[in-house]
Amino acid sequence: MNAISAPLARAAVSPAPAAPSRIHGVDAALLAKYDGLRVPRYTSYPTAPHFTPEVTGDVYGGWLEAVEPTRSGSLYLHVPFCQKMCWYCGCHTKIVARYAPIAEYLGHMRREIAMVADRIPGRLAVRHIHFGGGTPTMMAPDDFEAMIALLRSRFDVAAAAELAVEIDPRTLTAEMAAALGRAGVNRASLGVQDFDATVQEAINRVQPRAVTEQALAWLQEAGIASVNLDLMYGLPHQSVESVTRSAEIALEMAPDRLSVFGYAHVPWMKTHQKKIDESVLADSLGRWEQFAAIADTLSAAGYSAIGLDHFARPGDELAVQQEEGRLGRNFQGYTTDDAEVLLGFGASSIGALPQGYVQNAVPFDQYATAVEEGRLPTGKGIALTDDDRLRRDLIMRLMCDLSVDTAAVARAHGLSEDAFEPELAGMADLVADGVAVVEGRRVHVPESARPLMRIVAARFDTHLSKGAGRHSRAV
């Protein structure tokens, strides 16, 4: 990973070090070759850019009414509010200085929950509840506990259900941490991004180490022992040395899991990102050096690499499910949630049912108006075809296991084992580059090409040409 210095041209001149030939086992030239290629992150298939307004609230209502009582479920609640804008943010969020907009929004969400629950036959059995944002812990403690009580009254929430909440340590209070514990929250995901003060200033997220440690202490006191930490690379002023130090500090906090995400600089889409100085952003190879430094640090500490960008302790359920070939992936990333019905609540939230995907209206006013009028606030979605389900299963296994038996997937869907022969034959370039290995009808992504796994998955995506420009860069 360290650059190898070129021989001195003159005794008195020290030339710049040569570019590394390999980064985290990946050929640097290969990373450069695929730089700029845009492919989905595959948290679903088909992916969100292919959703259309053809899936309306009426369509979604019909899907809900057809939910079978034996289906398992999970719930996602989107709370899109923050006290201050982080300049790197790519989420659907709104900055508020008063609690009134939050209270009003929660009222709409409660009405939406009631509408959805009323359309489902019986009480859906729920094993996972996830609060995302924004900053869900901007909710008042009483409001949070009341929301959990409402969910328990309308759904059959298992006693051992995972209740997870995303937390901004800067705004967490001891009172809110205690409320989370009383409500049954058993997993917390803390946003850190980076511990370096210079980086924090550059992204408008000043969060001293002591603030994160205090949040962890409050959560521990509340009985919430399972913790995830989020780190980022590719942020302004980051270097291999600085991200390594941040990873080391994160390890000292002993999280069960870590997520390592790359900053996507899209100021034409997120105008607040224009406040970030592009001159202090690393290039693509520099970004991958940073990712490699974090990955190497976490791996050396005994954490298992999970899919594309997660890390977990060997005994953690994520690692166990990956070893057993049961790991899943949804809109929250890699997950142990294998529910057949995912219900999304709140503006912009996405749900998944056997019939397809559905996303609520993104603009707050459209979401609120629909709920006030007694309509499901659906903005768009997509109905799944048999071919979509086939390719979703294949891409899921490839993204989770780095390997997939295409013949076995085809058989499971009642098709001939040679159903994917055109895709396999078309991978000659990836095989030649070492990005993929094709053995018979099995496709495998070598460990050295792990960062490029999305490129392999994209070869099975028949929707990609319809919206490639709206996806994230492969490198």
Protein model, in words:
- The protein is an alpha/beta fold and 475 residues long.
- 35% of the residues lie in helices and 21% in strands.
- It contains 16 helices and 21 strands.
- Helix 5 links the parallel strand 7 and strand 8.
- The radius of gyration is 23 Å and the shape is globular.
Mean pLDDT level: 91
Measured as a percent range, the helix fraction is: 25-40%
Percentage beta strand: 15-25%
Any idea what the shape is?
A: globular
The spatial strand order of the largest sheet comes to 11-12-10-9-8-7-6-3-15
Major β-sheet annotation = 9 strands, mixed
Poorly predicted spans? 1-18
Give the number of helices: 16
N/C terminus separation: 17 Å
Structural class: alpha/beta
Number of strand elements: 21
Radius of gyration: 23 Å
Quick summary:
This protein has 475 residues and is of the alpha/beta class. The chain has helices at residues 28-34, 57-65, 100-119, 141-154, 174-183, 197-202, 209-221, 240-252, 284-300, 317-323, 364-372, 386-401, 406-412, 421-425, 428-433, 453-458; strands spanning 22-23, 26-27, 72-79, 81-82, 94-95, 125-133, 156-167, 187-193, 226-233, 257-262, 304-306, 310-312, 328-330, 333-335, 341-345, 350-353, 356-360, 378-383, 403-405, 437-439, 442-444.
